[in-house]
Write a structure and sequence with these properties.
Elements lengths: L1 H18 L1 H30 L4 H23 L1 H29 L5 H21 L2 H21 L10
Length: about 170
Amino acid sequence: MQKTGTALVLITLGLIVLGFPVLGLVSAGIIYGFLILLMGIGLIVGGLWEMEENAGLGIAELFLGIIALILGIGCIFNPELFSWAVGFLAWIIGLILVIAGLIGAVLKAGGSRWNGVAGIVIGLLFMAFGKYLAIPAVLGVLIGAWLLIRGIVMLTAREEMSVPEI
């Protein structure tokens, strides 16, 4: 029964977010912003403690903590920053896949150049379509569709029957 309730909540949230995609993005941006903010605070505190033993590591943690703090506050108060970050990360992942694909094609990774070519193609697709994730409404629709599909699958999935051992 709990699974059915969870599925219905996911379906309801999915429909709401599909109806108001930017609203769904706002809540996701606030949640992730709060988590990034906490990470930034943790890095700053850790960096201050680390300064006594290793000044270089302490300074690095302080620097990263300040960046995380700024990004966290930015995501909380500007949900478009969250959307931009998702699009940017998709582009970075695509770039990494292209570079890995080029290396794989040149070195015949896995015994074939096609493994590298596949990495290049997938990387280029990430780079081409990642920019659309930076559009808040598009990212909101994708989040809403994911919630809806997840809820429907959870609602319609059958419980696996376990066979008693003899």
